[in-house]
């Protein structure tokens, strides 16, 4: 909860500074005069973000022969957004998704492969979409290319590392032996017990990744379409907010800005990229959005895509903890 509070405080303070710097004349009356239809669409788009994420999670688990229900996949997706919102680079969401998939009967190795596949699919989408939108709009091309190239190099390096690690099973054994020796520094007994389990899960992880890679082109294409739906749902939120306040939605420019912004937000500095996201948003959108609307746009966008994750994610986590530890006990 401390990290959540830090993220919220940083976000609110940054938005307040943006309001001040842009000399935004905002009153509750102005906010209440917003078009409720388009505001509802903005909220609904974020709900679609959760829903499409759940569909992809279910599809990946199903493709490994370890099916989960769509309802449970939705709970996993929403619950993980809470931890993602309070950790740098949204890294906290992955361990929770692995844990919840394991609770549903998926092996740790397979669950890890599913979550890693999610990250790789997202990265491939960002790398493929960013140059297309930069070419279509010519917007912030220099910044976009620099960020895109750096991200692509990191992705390429990680894929090479993963390929070398998984190409030969003996490399996994070497990695396991090193890990066991490291654990043995603290507890030899625990290291011996953990060794075989770690080795078995790493082999399952390897087999699961190979199985995912061997999916039919049609299956892989369908999962990439779902990935596109996930991110376009989220990236269209600012355009809906702009429409709600009577501004041009600036679809192409907004989508390009969101692609740049989501990569910038991966920098592991603050919980949920608080501060980074708001400053990046105001900087990019100030190039094509009226100055007086920047503060309102940033505040409402951040509420929908960040604070809503904290609120709904917290509620879902409490519900899951209650059903697992309290209801089962009594």
TrEMBL record:
The chain crosses the membrane at residues 30-55, 67-86, 123-141, 147-166, 220-245, 251-272, 293-316. Keywords: Cell membrane, Membrane, Transmembrane, Transmembrane helix. It comes from Archaeoglobus veneficus (strain DSM 11195 / SNP6). The lineage of its organism: Archaea, Methanobacteriati, Methanobacteriota, Archaeoglobi, Archaeoglobales. It is found in: Cell membrane. It comes from the Archaea. The keyword Transmembrane helix applies. It is a multi-pass membrane protein. This is Lysylphosphatidylglycerol synthetase/UPF0104. GO terms for cellular component: plasma membrane. It holds the Pfam family LPG_synthase_TM.
